[in-house]
Design goal:
300 residues; 60s Ribosomal Protein L30, Chain: A; five-stranded mixed β-sheet; 9 helices; rod-shaped
């Protein structure tokens, strides 16, 4: 109870006490209750939220007080007290309604602000996603163009290799295995027995092979093989020298040095029986393996 209320309540209490001492009648309960209802509403937020209804309740209470002062026994005091109490309750209900409406408006405003923020965030994310998608599409287009170009180059290389194969097949044995295109030249065609210097006729054949393979940009490995006559160590050294000789000659004819390698295999991987003269002659050979461009094999 604040100071104003205390003063307002003190006046009727003093009047009641004075009346009791002087023999005046006590105010009816309805008037006392009306006073309590009005003071409760007046001291609440109702004075700020709904001052009109609070003022009307005040006027109704004043009429009830006036009626009691004029004629304490009159029935109108009780009636007016009930009216004042009801108006105080109306003011209180109206205040609660106004407060609820304000809370609803504040909640709606906050909800609207949240929705706006969420919408802006969603739009920002959508814009970012669209930008990322655009970049991804551009990257895919570039990758597709690159793949198309590589496929076109591969088709051109395959066509060139086919032409080279047809040319080489006229002077040497050509086959395909898991290593790539294999060009086989017999050792007797290329070298003197036990030697690794190229014969003049061998150079002519290698000239045609180099011309056919030039510009293909495929990894090439030259393998040297011997029969099983003699020691393994000697055969390994001889086969390596022979492979190196063929490699060096092909490089001298314009094939790229970084794409050519040479390996001596000695008597390994025979293609015929070493028990016959013909079989040993077939095993003494040089293989020029044109490998697939995507990989390089270390051996046959």
């Amino acid at each position: 109870m604040n100071w104003n209320r205390a003063v307002t309540l003190a006046v009727p209490i003093l009047l009641v006490a004075s009346a009791a001492c002087g023999g005046q009648p006590m105010p009816p309960k309805s008037l006392v209750d009306a006073r309590e209802d009005f003071f409760r509403v007046r001291d609440s937020a109702a004075s700020q939220l709904d001052p009109t209804d609070v003022h009307e309740a005040d006027l109704a209470l004043q009429r009830a007080e006036s009626a009691f002062q004029h004629d304490p026994d009159a029935a109108t005091t009780d009636d007016l007290a009930h009216v004042a109490a009801n108006m105080a309750l109306v003011a209180q209900a109206r205040t609660q309604q106004i407060a609820a409406e304000q809370s609803a408006r504040e909640a709606k405003s906050q909800m609207d602000a949240t929705r706006v923020a969420q919408l802006q965030s969603a739009r920002g994310q959508l814009n970012q996603t669209q930008q990322d998608l655009g970049r991804t599409q551009m990257q895919l287009q570039v990758q597709q163009q690159t793949a198309d170009q590589q496929a076109q180059k591969l088709r051109a290389l395959e066509a060139n290799l086919k032409d080279a194969r047809d040319t080489i097949a006229k002077i040497a044995a050509v086959k395909d295995d898991e290593r790539g295109m294999v060009i086989t030249l017999q050792g007797e065609v290329l070298f003197q027995t036990g030697k690794w210097d190229l014969k003049p006729g061998a150079m002519a054949k290698l000239d045609e092979i180099a011309t056919a393979l030039k510009g293909k940009e495929q990894p090439i490995t030259v393998y040297g093989y011997t029969d099983n006559v003699g020691t393994v160590d000697n055969n390994m050294v001889l086969s390596q020298h022979r492979a190196d000789s063929v490699r060096s000659y092909l490089i001298s004819k314009g094939l790229p040095q970084d794409l050519l390698s040479a390996q001596g295999k000695g008597p390994d991987s025979p293609i015929s029986d070493n028990t016959s003269i013909e079989g040993r002659a077939q095993n003494r050979r040089v293989e020029i393996v044109v490998q697939p461009k995507a990989s390089r094999h270390s051996g046959p």
